[in-house]
Amino acid sequence: MFVARDGARFMAEGNAAMGADRHGKVRYHGTWMQQPAPVPIYLIFDEKFCKTGSIGESFACWDVSHGNLYDWSEDNLREVEKGWVKRADTVRELASLIDIAPDTLHTSVERYNTFATEGKDIDFNRESDGIAAIRSPPYYAMELTPSFINTQGGPRRDKDARVIGIGGDPIPRLYSAGELGSIYAFNYNAGGNVGECFAFGRIAGRNACKEAPFHA
Length: 216
Fold this sequence. Notes:
The chain has 216 residues and is of the alpha+beta class. It has six helices and eight strands; from the N terminus they run E-H-E-E-E-H-H-E-H-H-E-E-E-H. The chain has a four-stranded antiparallel beta sheet with strand order 1-4-6-5.
């Protein structure tokens, strides 16, 4: 389960949920909104989960937290020794290691375990076949770092690729292209960012070249 600093869950964990968030957006009360990322975020699990295998993917090129080619151990114990993963005999003790109120984390785990037992996540509607109770000590916590491979929005730009300031006027000599200031805003069009990079990269480059050089 994922918890925020307050010790409470805030989303449906798991690959199915991640794949359904529409590039960082989740459907909340009928409206697509930014997926909450209340850092610090912790992954809470037990010994049974720990023994299922490596939590971190070995030699993952995207692993910016521990080095591009870090070799994560199969049993996760090397990372426990490094302090990247915290371990304790009880949930309350674990909470103290990550600066979360012990009773709060204990309550969150018990509620999650109830969902696992009953096969229904009434808080976030996580798929029932993906929920396993957290009951086998010792217990573990690993801080997670949110990351995105695609972003939308950002500073506004005009048809000349000039970045628009908060007053509504172009900022002199500042241009943007691609996803930074994307014309798609909160939507995502497959392949659209590449075309946007080509189009506005060309526009921005041409206009930037017309700028008078700075004088020493």
